[in-house]
Amino acid sequence: MRLRHFPLIAASFAFGSCASPIHSAPVAAKGMVSAADPRAAEAGAEILRQGGTATDAAFATLLALNVVEPESSGIGGGGYLVYSQGGRAAVTIDGRETAPHAATGSWFYNNGHPMAHDEAIPGGKSVGIPGNLRLMALAHQRYGKLPWSALFQPAIRLARDGFKITPRLYNALNQFRRTGAMSAEGRALFYGPEGNPLPVGTLVKNPAFAAFLEGIAARGPESFYVGANAQNIVTTVNGSPLHPSQMTTGDIASYDAKTRAPVCGTYRGYRICGMGPSSSGGTTVFETLKQLERFNLSALGPNSPTAWHLIAESERLAYADRDQYLGDLDYVSVPVAGLMDPAYLASRSSLISPDKTISNVVAGNPPAAPKITCRAAPVPERGTSHFVAVDQWGDVASETSTIESVFGSGLTVSGYYLNNELTDFNIVPDKNGCLTANRVEGGKRPRSSMSPTIVWGPDGHVRLALGAAGGATIPAQVIKAIIGVIDWHLSAQQAIALPMIFAPGGDKVYVERGTYLESMIPQLQALGQSVQPMPAGFKANAIEWIDGNWVGAADPRSEGAAVSQ
């Protein structure tokens, strides 16, 4: 069965006339891919039809996204994979980028003063060692069925034969000209002679990237990390006209993707597994949900200001813990078990009231927490893409990939953009007299908000696989979607389309502009919340299991689609 990208249909939810329209949802008995671009989803589905696994399909999707959504993800960046083989226990792989070994706490300082975050983004110092190819190789070795080279063919065709600029890509090219056109290669691909982005619908060909992918397909993943490509990356970042780096080919050759322990717990009889550190997503999602378990969100429903107030309060607590404790556990002590501890989360939940707001949210003291008196400042993030693949054997891949900000560092090599992941570190390494968990260190992975997640139902079958893009809002998007499915009995499509509430610690709560949550601001303020609208910049994807079939979902705010095998 092949169900390709469907246009938006005129539909609104019974619980709110301001709800966003939704995509029609493809249904498949065998396999499916959901991604942020229909051409990338089709690339993954093509691999499924050839007998590939969910791993094979996920990585064909990643490569195709690199071509058609170059501003968001690709082999110049990194990601996280949560995988279930045949519906069994989750395995997670960390392909997050690492800092060059020369990096220190003052990496983003100029003349003894820290750079502003946006100042640090473009140029060489923001670039981390890309991890996606080693992540791909490790997962393919364990779970792949098709030859390595087969995974590259859809992306090679798109890059060689051309792809059309979509409204989303055009808007990114227009809004982020500073980074999108920073390199001559980027300017030549996407901008006209006057410096304006090429119009929507323009066919763009990227022969340099097609040739590069052909080489990696033929020679294998090691050819990315040693030899000409590694030298090209080093030459590009160290020779950047803005903030040159001190990366070495040894930094690149020594990079490893790592298998990590998944972060798993139960919520209302469902088992939820996500990514552990260096991601903050798994603990933040689970903390928020578990702290809400004592409240009857189902009875309140999605039209209730009280329900959204409770979600915001729980997010505030979870994000405070995230900012305090999360970092690369190879470098800092992260109290993962303590943050997941039922007694600790019950004590945090007791702080939440349905009729008032917590006046001063601070990080808690989970079991085995390091003695830290400082609190790190939140780090803004903007980029990323999520995709989900399921196959005929019951394998499920939930992966989030990123080059961080839109167009990453702005630097390109062989037709792909290099990430700016190192700006996910705290630019200032200390606060209130102590070093923060997410400070810059050589070889370290920066903290991430990416939250690839798999949910098992009470019957033991995978119920839902999902994730999102959007920086620090990612855990909140995943939380909202899981509550929509489990508590409010919505389809994954409806749950993703729900309006967003985002409460990243501190006092501010943000609601999605133009939705029925914006009309709830007076009621939320009456409960003590300090609320302001935020623009919609969200991008989630999911696949769920309903009545013996896989059903796809893609965020109506995006150009995403689900395509069946």
Weakly predicted, low-confidence segments: 1-23
**Largest sheet features:** 7 strands, antiparallel
Helix content: 25-40%
Tell me the fraction of residues in β-strands, as a range: 15-25%
The coarse silhouette is: globular
| Helical stretch tally | 21
Biggest sheet strand line-up? 3-26-25-21-20-13-12
How would you describe this protein?
The chain has 565 residues and is an alpha+beta fold. It is 33% helix and 19% strand. α13 packs across α17 and α13 (281-292) packs across α18. The radius of gyration is 22 Å and the shape is globular. Residues 1-23 have low confidence and may be disordered.
Put the structure in a nutshell.
By secondary structure, this protein is an alpha+beta fold. It is 33% helix and 19% strand. The protein starts with 7 loop residues before the first strand and ends with a strand.
Question: What are the SSEs and their pairings?
Answer:
Layout lengths: L7 E2 L12 E2 L3 E2 L3 E4 L2 H12 L4 H15 L9 E7 L5 E6 L13 E2 L2 E2 L2 H4 L11 H12 L9 H9 L1 E2 L2 H9 L1 H4 L3 H7 L12 E2 L2 H13 L2 H4 L2 H11 L10 H5 L4 E3 L2 E5 L2 E5 L6 H12 L4 H4 L4 H21 L10 H5 L1 H8 L35 E6 L5 E7 L9 E2 L2 E2 L12 E2 L2 E2 L17 E4 L5 E8 L4 H13 L5 H6 L3 E2 L5 E5 L3 H4 L1 H6 L3 E5 L4 E8 L2 E6 L6 E4 L1
Parallel strand pairs: 23-24
Antiparallel strand pairs: 1-2, 3-26, 4-14, 4-27, 5-6, 5-15, 6-11, 7-8, 9-10, 12-13, 13-20, 14-15, 16-17, 18-19, 20-21, 21-25, 22-23, 25-26
